[in-house]
Amino acid sequence: AGIGKCVAMDLARRNARTILACRSRERGQAAVEEIRAATGNPAVLLRLLDTGSLASVRAFASAVLREEPRLDVLVNNAGVTGLPFAITSEGLEQTFATNYLGPFLLTNLLLG
C-alpha cells in the first residue's frame, strides 16, 4: 500500500521485473494482481518478508540471490509506527528491528 505500491507500479510500468516483498500473502497478492492488470507486466512477483524478523530477512535474501540473476534496484520502504512496546523472538525491540535492523541487514546481504 502507499508509497511502496506506487513505486512498484512505476517500476512495473517501465517493464521492470518487480518483486513485492510483503508480510501479508493476501494483501501482497492483491497488490501483485492490481499492478499486473494496470501495467500489463506479468513479471510482478510476490515474496514474503517480515523485516522485523532477521530470520525472515535472511531467508528472503537467500531466495532472491538464488533465484534472480541480478538485482538492479532495492527500495527499502517497510516501516511501522505507534506499535506498543514488544520484543521479537530474536530479542530485539519490534519497531527498531522492523524499521532499521531488518532493512540494514537486507541491504547488506543483497550487496553480495
From TrEMBL:
UniProt-listed SUPFAM superfamilies: NAD(P)-binding Rossmann-fold domains
InterPro entries: NAD(P)-bd_dom_sf, SDR_fam
Keywords, in A-Z order: Oxidoreductase
One GO molecular-function entry: oxidoreductase activity
Top-level taxon of the source organism: Eukaryota
Stated family: Belongs to the short-chain dehydrogenases/reductases (SDR) family.
Protein's recorded name: DHR13 reductase
Naturally occurring in which organism (per UniProt): Ploceus nigricollis
